[in-house]
Amino acid sequence: DAGVIQSPRHEVTEMGQEVTLRCKPISGHDYLFWYRQTMMRGLELLIYFNNNVPIDDSGMPEDRFSAKMPNASFSTLKIQPSEPRDSAVYFCASSEPTGTSTSYEQYFGPGTRLTVT
Amino acid sequence: SQKIEQNSEALNIQEGKTATLTCNYTNYSPAYLQWYRQDPGRGPVFLLLIRENEKEKRKERLKVTFDTTLKQSLFHITASQPADSATYLCALDGTGGFKTIFGAGTRLFVKA
Fold it and tell me: Which residue of A has its CA nearest to B49?
């Protein structure tokens, strides 16, 4: 398996622009997580999905952030409009179905490094 | 609110020695605790999970303990190698299920 795939790996954009980050989870995993990592705040959970349905979005910082999962193999995290304080590394992770022996183990993608100028 | 604390200072040890990393938590009773490794420029990689009813878990040179009374987990790497140099993150389940809260991580440097 190719693991969790994220694109782009790097994104540089200007303040006010829309940014879309993409994620393809591992096939067969039915949990998908979006995280943001900064030096100041560490690794923070933004939102997670189960079977394509958002379960908890309490970590989404504000209305400028939105996430979707239209099918089991694709998810997006969108920031509109972007601000310099959104600069961070954004990770996507996935987990196997509940009840499996490794159901809590999360597999992370390589991340997208976002810079907003 | 739930809080996880890991040593913010980097840990420097000599090759062959045992590295011990600490994870303390407050205001919560997690059902399980996980340890991940993160290398620069990469996503975290799962290492071990220990449940609340387990005192100790081992995997090769790794050992994790979980003391729910002290609200602490210790992560040990025996016979450490320079390749073990990385940041190690502990993570707890949040309000239940799959919501995960990560600690800030401890940077480990193993010198040859």
Answer: A105
* pLDDT exceeds 90 at position A24: yes
Of A20, A15, A31, A11, the closest CA to residue A108 belongs to: A31
Total residue length of chain A: 117
Rounded distance between C-alpha atoms, residue B7 and residue B21, angstroms: 7
A34 touches chain B (CB under 8 A): no
Task: Report whether pLDDT(A3) > 80.
Answer: yes
Question: Which residue does chain B place closest to A48, by CA atoms?
Answer: B99
Residue A111: partners with Cβ closer than 8 Å, 6 or more residues away: A6, A9, A37, A89, A90, A91, B41, B42, B43
Spatial contact of A52 and A71, defined as CB atoms under 8 Å apart = yes
Q: Which of B33, B37, B46 is the best substitution to test chain A (most A C-beta atoms within 10 A)?
A: B46
Per-residue pLDDT tens over the stretch A94-107: 998 666 655 678 99
CA distances from B43 to A7, B29, B37 (A): 14, 27, 9
**pLDDT for position A107:** 95
pLDDT band at A62 (very low <50, low <70, confident <90, very high): confident
> Cα(A2)–Cα(A13) distance, rounded to whole angstroms?
28
